[in-house]
Amino acid sequence: MDETLAIHGGPPVRKRPFPDWPVFGEREETYVLEALRSGKWGGSGQVKRAGFQAKLPEWERRFAQLQGAKYGVSVVNGTMAITVALQAAGVKPGDEVIIPPYTFIASASAALLFGAVPVFADVKAETMQLDPEQVKRAITPRTRAVLTVHLGGGMGDMTRLKQVADSHGLALIEDAAQAIGARWDGIGAGAWGDAGTFSFQSSKNLTAGEGGIVLTSDPELMERAWSVANVGRVLGGEWYQHERIGWNLRMTEFQAAILLAQLDRLEEQLARRHRNAMLLDRLLGEVEGVRFVHRDPRNRHGWHLYLFRLADRVTKRVSKAEWVRMVQAEGIPVSPGYFALNKHPAVMRSIRDWTGEHRAYPCPAAERLAEREAVWLGQQVLLDTEAGMEEVARAITKVNRYVLAARS
């Protein structure tokens, strides 16, 4: 077999694409047509034609039930779900919200949108999840909430995070955008904290192109979240009864229709992703230069991402960016992942604008993951065949052999 790297002109390991996403069919078409013919397209008001059932209430009920929460409030996207959850939990402008730096920018911008200030606490390098002990060290008199992020579909130590939050009287919010179907110690993502937020953007394991939801089991928090997302109206009140400042952040019936159909596919897809992730564990365990991310046995993973790390002996010889280009040339769509938000110019500039001061948050584990170690495979890859997982491992083996041999 020709072991010349594809980036150097050799044959790539894989020449065909990975599975298309999203997956859809007659069920999605049927539900969307039902919403169309109902005459109720928006997220408020009554169904205009007899014989049709509104999709949004059914969707919210089923998704909350899936994750083990009592209530769901659908919104336009995952970023707004975080903003709504923070405000419903009582976070106000000037309050501090502790978040991990190794996450999508929306985890910070959702707070900054209304003047709440992100404070960064480092992750554990071995799990990539928020470190509860670093959260404790980051608490100040202005701290009002902890926003933990379930990276990749894994969950951090929710037992300990809840203990820390409760002992300091802080709201615990879960950014569970990547953790649909995940559980910690038998309790679903989004049901551990005061509220949990999800995204249904195009890449997510349930998708309607865009959309989000806030889950909670607290009826008062649910009513506040509903009000914030419904221009300050009161649940069960009059149409023009606005008792707080809110926004029109409602999901449409069309999005709910698609999500209901997608829900019917979720468990089979989750099982397939899990099988392929376990196979990758076995295959990559034999590859020199690959380090695994620790997965706690209390965690049922949601498998939005398959995460792994590059060992020092690889990153001392080649940059992560160059390594990613080599593997991508072999036909494997690896991603370098996030930029650490505690070093992100726009985020830190916005914090300075709101606070009037320059703040520094050293987070060495997150910075090392972002700059040198962390590599991702997306959920579409995990929907492929066993042969596809073998090609992933073969491509990484091929690149690492070259790096470790040619640059020693």
Features:
seven-stranded mixed sheet, 13 helices, Aspartate Aminotransferase, domain 1, single chain, 13 strands, Aspartate Aminotransferase, domain 2, alpha/beta, three-stranded antiparallel sheet, 2 domains, 408 residues
Structure description:
- By secondary structure, the protein is an alpha/beta fold.
- It contains 13 helices and 13 strands.
- A 7-stranded mixed β-sheet has the order 1-9-8-5-4-2-3, with helices on both faces. Strands 7-6-11 form a 3-stranded antiparallel β-sheet, with no helix packed on it.
- Helix 1 (26-38) runs antiparallel to helix 8, helix 2 (55-67) runs parallel beside helix 8 and helix 3 (78-88) crosses helix 7 (219-229).
- The longest helix is centred in the middle third of the chain and has 32 residues, at 253-284.
- The mean pLDDT is 96.
Molecular shape? globular
Query: What does the largest sheet look like?
Result: 7 strands, mixed
Classification by helices and strands: alpha/beta
What's the mean pLDDT score?
96
Which strand-content bin applies to the residues?
Answer: 5-15%
Here the CATH topology of the largest domain equals: Aspartate Aminotransferase, domain 2
CATH superfamily caption of the largest domain: Type I PLP-dependent aspartate aminotransferase-like (Major domain)
Poorly predicted residue ranges: none
Tell me the count of domains: 2
| Secondary-structure element order, N to C | HHEHEHEHEHEEEEEHHEEEHHHHEH
Helix fraction bin: 25-40%
N-C termini distance? 23 Å
List how many beta strands DSSP finds: 13
